[in-house]
Amino acid sequence: AFFWLLSLLAASLLWFVSVRLSGREDAAPLLLGAAAAVLLQELCRFACFKLLKKADEGLATLSEDGRSPISLRQMAYVSGLSFGIISGVFSIVNILADSAGPGTVGIHGDSPYYFITSAFLTMALVLLHTFWGVIFFDACERRRAGGLGLVVGGHLLASGLTFLNPWYEASLGPIFILTLGTGLWAFGTAGGSFRNVLKCLSCKQEPEGRAMLYSALQVPPEE
């Protein structure tokens, strides 16, 4: 969350300087500012990865068995969720403040679906950042430039679609399709499979699964 706040600070300073120098606040600088904010967020995500990677190596050095107690996938999930939560908070806080009054949405021809659509967009943004964190960390670990490019491209696409508002059908639908596709991609990246889902949904507990459960809980099988 702190790294995301750093990216927000850098983007705000960049926007302030560019507006001061150009004296314009129309759509073109706004689009460029949004793109710059996305790139700064992904740069800070990479810095977060490097820091957590160093921390992981330090924890492995201090542990008795030479292995870190926290896996890289766990770090990726927590990092992505933190990015998503803090991003969602900053996205919705001003909207929530406006919802307290004194105006009424729709009274001047505005869309009556403004608040509910903003809530769904914020939810999608939180999920997307969580998925992007898992994919981004895995791509950095495996040195896959294509994965990094797709994460950055997906982030730019999601941000660009919000400029279609208040035409919510054109923005909300594609963003949720992007969220679903990115979620499936992150699920596969984390080692998930359709077979594992079926085994989870079925109420059968195989001996192998029982042994893994005992091992995870550190309980002897005879107990």
UniProtKB/TrEMBL annotation:
Q: Which domain of life is it from?
A: Eukaryota
The record's section on InterPro entries has:
Aph-1
- Gene Ontology CC terms: gamma-secretase complex
Q: Where is the signal peptide?
A: 1-19
Transmembrane recorded as keyword = yes
Q: What is its main location?
A: membrane
| UniProt entry keywords in alphabetical sequence | Membrane, Notch signaling pathway, Signal, Transmembrane, Transmembrane helix
Its GO biological process terms?
Answer: Notch signaling pathway; protein processing
Family assignment from sequence similarity? Belongs to the APH-1 family.
Alphabetical list of PANTHER family matching this protein:
GAMMA-SECRETASE SUBUNIT APH-1
- Subunit structure, interactors included: Component of the gamma-secretase complex.
Name used for this protein in its record: Gamma-secretase subunit APH-1
The record lists the lineage as: Eukaryota, Metazoa, Chordata, Craniata, Vertebrata
